[in-house]
Write a structure and sequence with these properties.
Blueprint (H helix, E strand, L loop, with lengths): L4 H24 L3 E4 L13 E5 L2 E9 L3 E4 L1 H11 L9 E9 L2 E7 L1 H6 L6 E4 L9
Parallel strand pairs: 3-5
Antiparallel strand pairs: 1-2, 2-3, 4-7, 5-6
């Protein structure tokens, strides 16, 4: 499938909007939050959004779709690699997939042991009707 430049710009703009919306949502709930603008195309281990509150730190991978999203293991690995740079106890670090389904958000925290049991070839699937396990 060939993607033209205009379509690629629209796709990236959609992701930018969801990342900005998440930052605003977190800030309104008294989190310190920032969007990391170079994270999406980069091979570096940077999350889309980074946040903290009450001694807890959060790395977010943000996805925008209509009904469901697939998250590959390497995308989740980037979150854990980033969190490993922060010198606090593991219990205060959180890797979260934030799925933006139109007006609805679903948040799925990924525990390290669950991440390690994921197979490389089987992406994690989160649907609009899935139950999230984390609330900001």
């Amino acid at each position: 499938m060939v993607i033209d430049a205009g379509r690629l710009r629209r796709w990236r703009r959609r992701g930018f909007y969801s990342e900005q919306a998440l930052v605003k949502r977190l800030l309104s709930r008294k989190y310190g939050a920032v969007r990391i603008p170079c994270s999406n195309p980069s091979q570096e281990y940077l999350p889309d959004v980074f946040a903290s509150k009450d001694g807890e730190v959060y790395a977010f991978e943000v996805k925008k779709q209509r009904r469901y999203v697939y998250i590959r293991k390497d995308q989740i690995r980037k979150l854990f690699d980033f969190l490993d740079l922060i010198p606090i106890h593991e219990s205060h670090k959180h890797a979260i997939i934030a799925c933006h389904f139109g007006k609805k958000w679903k948040f799925q925290e990924i525990k390290k042991e669950d991440f390690e049991s994921l197979k490389e070839e089987e992406p994690l699937r989160i649907t609009k009707s899935s139950r999230g396990n984390w609330k900001p």
